[in-house]
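Sample intake sheet
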Amino acid sequence: MNIQLLFDKAKEAGFSASEVYRVTVDSIEVGVTDATVKKHQISSSDAICFRGLMNGKMGYASTEKISDESIEQLIINAKDSALLIEKDDQEFIYSGDGQYVDVVAGSSVEFDTQFYIDTTLDVEQAILKTSDKIVKVADTQMKHMQKTTYIANSNGLEVKQYASNAMLFSSPVAKDGDGMVNAYDFAKGVDYTAIDIDKFVKTAVKNTLQKVDAKPMKSGLTKVIFSNKVMASLLGIMSGNFNADVMQEGRSKLEGLEGQKIANELITIVDNPHLENSFSSCGFDDEGVPTYKKNIVDNGTFTGFLHNLKTANKAGVKTTGNAKKAGVTSPIKVGTTNLYLQTGESELEEMILAVGNGVFVTEMDGGHSGANAVTGDFSLPIRGLLIEDGKLTTPVKQVTMAANFFEVLKNVVAVGDDFETTHMGAGSPSVSVGEISIAGE
């Protein structure tokens, strides 16, 4: 498609400024069970979203037919879209100034189908051989996605970013009395060479066997350590509170708290679009604005909301480079890149010893269904290990934990040095959070 021709035709049709947002994706996915390939899929997609300003309203249109023949229909559809908008919010197409950082988020490779099949089969067999207590592996999957994002606009902007993400999933199953237990583990990297398969296998087996012979624990207030992945998951669930569009809609717990203490001084929460070797890293946001690393919470103090061009204008501040689209055809919102709780200095063993008696939470079930991202309240089933006399002992199950995420941040006692990320992108070390209400037996 001739992009300049599209911009010229859009101007003739009455658009004062316009933009093209194009995403090309190539992916491979392999799944195996019982030494048999159950899923094998290679796919590609290429789509354009055109948006333009007409009388202050932003119209959207998209197509997967990327040719000059699609230009006229894109303009018609975007114009119709703009005419339907009733809100008076001021919209923007980025002017294109600023300094860009060259962010490396993987390198392009040719998909070797047989390699992915063989690797996935090998992982399943390695898990089965690691322990005779593992009776089967319910599912093992390997996925690899390569994405190129291109943005150009009539103001002279033209930027391009490549990103790659490989992920490995598996669910070992162990016999537990008359029943079965399983864990669901993952590992990821910018490509398959960045995944430590031996470490993944050992971790998946260990996490499964830690569930065997689990028992309920007594109800009451209990000292708690959240594992790195559990804390990262909670942070991801509550992350919308940091977004200015959510705040401007009256749905953020943090509204009006800029510059105030909202957490223990041990807590620093970072949005880092320049993190090395991460699929979520980017030199520009989804409006083409240059990105930069920022501490959203700095030693317990909330520094301010994340913005795109529209929310920043409404608040009278500069954009933070956090414009986000949920998909190619989606409107511009606000979102994080690599969001994480900054690593502390405490070793996990030291934190467990300091707690003395409590619980180490390794899993939280229910996710969004048991958590209110607006208030920060959550009530979720957990699994983990009892902490008795400073040591991890009995696995626990059939336990529900109820607390408020922001109160948890205030009550943090120690932050670990064992940083991990979730498959959704948020990251955290393990965190000791004081006493929390537990409903058990």
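Comment: The chain has nine helices and 21 strands. The CA atoms of residues 10 and 75 lie 6 Å apart.
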